Amino acid sequence: MTAAEAMVAATARLRAAGVPDPARDARVLLAHAARVDATRVTLIAPEDISSDIQERFEQLVALRVVRVPVSHLIGERAFYGRRFKVSSDVLDPRPETETLIEAALAEPFSSVLDIGTGSGCILITLLAERPSAVGTGTDLSEVACLQASANVVMNRVAPRAEILQSDWFGAVRGQYDLIVSNPPYLAAEEMTDVSPELRDHEPRMALTDEADGLTGYRVLASMGQRHLEPHGRLLAEIGWLQGPAVVALFEEAGWRDVRVLPDLDGRDRVVCAQMPA
Q1: Phi/psi-derived region of residue 120, left when phi > 0, alpha when psi is between -120 and 50, beta in every other case
Q2: Cβ–Cβ under 8 Å, residues 169 and 177
Q3: Is 77 inside any structural domain?
Q4: pTM for this entry
Q5: What range does the domain containing 195 cover?
Q6: Do 24 and 133 lie in a common domain?
Q7: How far are the Cα atoms of 3, 13, 99 from residue 238, in angstroms, in the given order?
Q8: What 3-state DSSP class applies to 156?
């Protein structure tokens, strides 16, 4: 069987299973099985693939058919031009979160606190883009903290990054110029409607607060000010229908200049707030 024939067969299986963009996934998984860069798959397409590559590819496709995320199968995910190791213990970095990164980088900061750091992708990206900044990432999950620590080392920001196991701000000391967070924002009732990749293969505690989806924003609004410098900012990713409710929470807590930023699809994605004057 040639690589091209294997990809065609895999694409058909993935499409029949309801996998979004099956041709892309087949290409990425074949590249991983063949241990080549995905951009080189077209070069090997006319070639016969060895039995060991074919076996690895079949195993990967079988797992993707049952909706195991591609990132978990290959062990990494791209985010803001960098690679991050991921697993079922952390939320996959997603393109929408780059809206938060762009907003954070729009103004200067020398210190950043990432609440619920997960893979560490937000904290690490901000430190990598601001080589003089230092930062701290917290997460309730010990396994997530280990994953974030590995990504800190892999992306060469270890001298400037600290990872703490903490329930929200519990272990945090001191003040920062910038607080960022992508808290669990799905309401418990919404979990039945999410994709199998999310529902069955990503940590539930990173997706939902098992309540109305606003618990994290209440904590950020009520506790964030004590850990910000006087000129500080707080940026939090939100669900696309949560903008008015989250803005109201921050305004009631006394924050100023509270506003919502859209993502590239025009949906509400990030709430920005300033320390009170």
Answers
A1: left
A2: no
A3: no
A4: 0.91
A5: 89-274
A6: no
A7: 41, 35, 11
A8: coil
